[in-house]
Design brief:
The structure holds two protein chains of two kinds.
Chain A lengths: L5 E14 L5 E16 L4 E5 L6 H8 L7 E6 L2 E2 L5 H9 L1 E4 L13 H11 L6 H10 L16 H13 L5 E5 L7 H18 L2 E6 L2 H7 L2 E6 L2 E7 H6 L4 H9 L5 H6 L32 H4 L5 E4 L2 E3 L4 H6 L7 H6 L4
Parallel strand pairs in A: 3-8, 3-9, 6-7, 7-8
Antiparallel strand pairs in A: 1-2, 1-4, 4-5, 9-10, 10-12, 11-12
Helix pairs in contact in A: 3-5, 5-6
Chain B lengths: L26 E10 L7 E11 L4 E5 L6 H9 L7 E9 L2 E2 L5 H10 L1 E4 L3 H4 L6 H13 L3 H14 L5 H4 L9 H14 L4 E5 L7 H15 L5 E6 L2 H7 L2 E6 L2 E7 H6 L4 H9 L49 E3 L2 E3 L18
Parallel strand pairs in B: 3-8, 3-9, 6-7, 7-8
Antiparallel strand pairs in B: 1-2, 1-4, 4-5, 9-10, 10-12, 11-12
Helix pairs in contact in B: 4-5, 4-7, 5-7, 7-8
Classes of the chains: A alpha/beta, B alpha/beta.
The structure holds adenosine-5'-triphosphate (2 copies), iron/sulfur cluster (2 copies) and magnesium ion (MG) (2 copies).
């Protein structure tokens, strides 16, 4: 296999928690990202899924150096960006762009669409003309007449198209899309998902798609990683992950997603999780998921942190008992039992 | 799970069947219209001739995209619309009593006792400077005449029932000390404190993570099933109604465009909008190769209902008549449909075609 376009090694991002008005003593840290490894291959889509606060956005921002890295490295085309300076750094950065969740918040309301989508070109001193702007608009399915208009004149879906046009203006190799459809109406989401796929084919883009919606991530991704409290707990090719989730968190997450089909809804078995997500400032010892895990086994799960390891070819999970759970030797506690056990 | 508490009904009473029985409906909404009028602006017909019924014990879903009029419908039923700049027409009959135009005091009493509502953002309905325990006991004292000690016992009981751990301690917490999921549970506890006969839940899980959403939906299911409490579930998520509701009404641009029993609706959507929605959402239980068929345009590309079909600018089945005449909501074997050229095939498998 060729070298991955993007390699993340042992990445940690900790945000210091400070106390005191004057001295600002550090009293702890939010371990937003706490040891992540991943490879993204050229031309593929890598999906990152997990619940609110698990560190998805922080990971995406750290890859783009929009957030400081506490530990670990990010290699782009085999080169560590931290080692680069000046023109070389600018050139590499140009090949990585971001699409944001809230299309309105990420577009300057006082700038025309032409100004917005050509902004990255100007920032990198690239000469361009109206034709290039029209080309970009056409690429994302907007009429040329959009160029002279302003963001408020567009619907949410159209604004997201504008954000995508801006992201691809520099012909990047990698696009990190953070919740690209979650602010959009259901009927519009598919338009944007299809557009992202089409642009990937036409421009040979590589995507890192960050989203909390499992169905969306499953649909767009070749490879999916599931995050929980700052780490990856499971990673596999998309269809393999959804056909046979191995980590208890993924199993529960998938059983919790409502499916728009009453026949499926009536017959499926739900594994209800107890409790809320613990704080990343104070993550549980041992397996980080043990406070909510319906399969938890005494006392190893409470004491020993499981490593992300290969359970099946190309399918990795961070659970001590993945094999036993897969074979059915360990079964989940009853959902009602779990529910009654309290929702912390 | 066994939930001993059954709102609105004594324990021993046998359960009656839920959908389709012959009793008089608990709630009958007839030709409800809500128009926002602001000086210098065109009036907004947020809700336009909406009619539906809910029977005791029935779970009814109201689905639609942003701005389709779901929340305004529920606020109109609950008498919670702003006073000025809004015109309400039509009728909301709750167990023989007309709610539209009811005086404020009577309506407030009904809201505490018979009707309750849970909103998307629990923070907006909880008082931030009063402990959650007091917010529950206040309701109990006001509407159920319990004394202080009994109200406290009942509050702890209610918190236990909605799955809040260590409830005796939690009654002393302020809303900000609770997570989003726990706040929503508190809100449900408050809503159920008076054993309402109708519970309206407006996107109660939209702001929550999917694992917490599953807990809350399970809780709602347990609390209302087996009781005679009627539930109006408002959501944009077809998956949520698929698992929870007996009957589903699909709204578009202020009007109901299709109504059906949930199995019928999902097995065979007939309105191009309903079918379009189903074809445009990725499904977790299908392989990833299945292509999505988006609905073109956006929910703001509408035609005024007074001119024709509001969905015509986006509809794959639209023809000339759709822009000249307004389709009526026509009943047809236990369903209702507002469309001149309904779907004959399922858009989830092939492109939309029509009769
Ligand atoms: N600048 C910051 N300073 C301190 N803590 C932060 C900062 N940014 C993020 N965090 C914390 O780091 C954790 C991870 O946040 P992050 O935004 O990466 O999560 P996420 O997975 O993207 O969540 P969401 O789905 O809600 O967007 C959270 O606990 C968050 O509060
Ligand atoms: N106070 C108000 N004044 C003027 N217009 C309003 C007011 N409240 C709602 N509307 C309008 O009424 C229409 C219906 O709004 P409503 O809140 O019922 O939509 P919804 O279906 O609940 O959408 P969402 O899914 O976004 O919650 C919208 O066009 C909205 O802009
Ligand atoms: S290691 Fe233990 S607690 Fe962690 S996921 Fe596996 S079974 Fe659950
Ligand atoms: S009436 Fe016409 S435009 Fe409206 S939904 Fe039916 S076919 Fe489409
Ligand atoms: Mg985020
Ligand atoms: Mg609403």
């Amino acid at each position: 296999m060729p070298e991955p376009l993007l390699q993340v090694r042992g990445l940690k991002v900790h945000f210091p928690i400070r106390k005191g008005v004057v001295l600002q003593r550090q009293v702890g840290a939010v371990r937003a990202v706490d040891g992540v490894d991943l490879d993204v291959h050229k031309g593929s889509t890598f999906g990152l899924v997990g619940e609110s606060g698990c560190g998805k956005s922080t990971l995406g921002r750290a890859i783009l150096r929009l957030t400081d890295i506490t530990e670990g490295e990010v290699l782009f085309e085999g080169v560590d960006l931290a080692q680069l300076k000046g023109e070389e750094l600018r050139r590499r950065r140009r090949s990585m762009q971001m699409v944001f969740q809230d299309p309105m918040a990420s577009l300057n309301p006082r700038q025309s669409i032409e100004t917005i989508i050509s902004e990255p070109l100007r920032a990198h001193d690239i000469t361009f003309d109206n034709r290039r702007v029209r080309e970009l608009l056409e690429l994302v399915g907007l009429p040329a007449s959009a160029a002279s208009r302003y963001p408020h004149e567009f619907s949410g879906g159209q604004r997201q198209r504008i954000g995508i046009a801006r992201a691809v203006a520099l012909e990047p190799a990698l696009v990190i899309a953070d919740e690209p459809v979650s602010a959009l109406d259901v009927s519009i989401q598919a338009q944007v998902l299809n557009l992202l796929e089409e642009l990937q084919d036409r421009l040979g883009l590589t995507y890192l798609v960050i989203a909390h919606d499992l169905a969306v991530v499953h649909h767009v991704s070749d490879e999916v990683a599931v995050m929980y409290l700052g780490s990856i707990v499971e990673q596999a090719p998309s269809d393999a992950l959804y056909a046979q989730p191995l980590h208890p968190y993924t199993i529960s997450l998938m059983s919790a997603v409502p499916v728009p089909d009453p026949v499926v809804e009536d017959s499926r078995q739900r594994i209800l999780l107890t409790g809320d997500l613990p704080s990343p400032a104070n993550p549980p010892d041992g397996c980080r998921f043990h406070t909510r895990c319906p399969f938890r086994q005494e006392t190893r799960c409470d004491d020993e942190r499981p490593a992300l390891r290969e359970i099946q070819p190309g399918h990795r999970a961070a659970c001590h008992y993945a094999e036993e759970i897969l074979s059915g030797h360990i079964t989940p506690r009853e959902p009602d039992e779990a529910l009654r056990a309290g929702v912390a | 799970m066994t939930v001993e508490y059954v709102p609105g009904q004594p324990q021993s009473q046998p359960q009656t069947t839920i959908a389709g029985h012959g009793d008089r409906p608990l709630l009958t909404v007839t030709d409800l219209s809500v128009t926002f009028t602001r000086r210098g602006r065109a009036p907004v017909h947020a809700v336009d001739d909406v009619s539906f019924q809910i029977r005791a014990g029935e779970h009814v879903g109201l689905v639609g995209e942003s701005g389709s009029g779901k929340s305004v419908t529920s606020l109109a039923i609950m008498g919670l619309l702003p006073r000025g700049g809004v015109e309400v027409a039509g009728s909301v009959d709750f167990d023989g009593q007309e709610l539209i135009g009811l005086d404020t005091a009577t309506m407030r009493n009904l809201r505490g006792q018979e009707l309750a509502m849970v909103f998307q953002d629990p923070m907006t309905s909880l008082n931030p400077v009063i402990t959650v325990g007091r917010q529950i006991t206040e309701v109990l004292k006001r509407h159920r005449d319990l004394d202080k000690a009994d109200a406290r016992t009942e509050a702890v009981d209610l918190l236990t029932k909605v799955g809040i751990p260590d409830p005796a301690r939690r009654v002393g917490d302020y809303p900000h000390q609770l997570s989003g999921g726990m706040r929503q549970r508190v809100l449900i506890a408050i809503a159920l404190a008076c054993q309402p006969r109708l519970l309206i839940a407006d996107e109660p899980t939209t702001a929550l993570d999917v694992t917490i959403q599953a807990q809350i939906l399970e809780l709602l299911r347990e609390l209302v099933s087996g009781s005679q409490t009627a539930l109006l579930m408002i959501t944009h998520d077809l998956g949520v109604v698929a698992g929870l509701c007996d009957r589903v009404h699909v709204m578009y641009s202020g009007r109901i465009v299709e109504s059906a029993e949930r199995r019928q609706l999902f097995a065979r959507p007939r309105h191009p909008y309903t079918g379009g929605l189903m074809a445009s959402i990725p499904r977790l239980d299908q392989p990833r190769g299945v292509p999505l068929t988006p609905i073109p345009g956006s929910p703001t590309d509408t035609l005024p209902w007074s001119q024709g079909c509001a969905f015509a600018p986006r509809c794959p089945n639209s023809e000339v008549d759709c822009r000249m005449h307004t389709p009526a909501l026509e009943p047809a074997d236990n369903r209702a449909l507002r469309c001149f050229h309904p779907l004959t095939t399922d858009p989830r498998s092939v492109g939309a075609t029509h009769a």
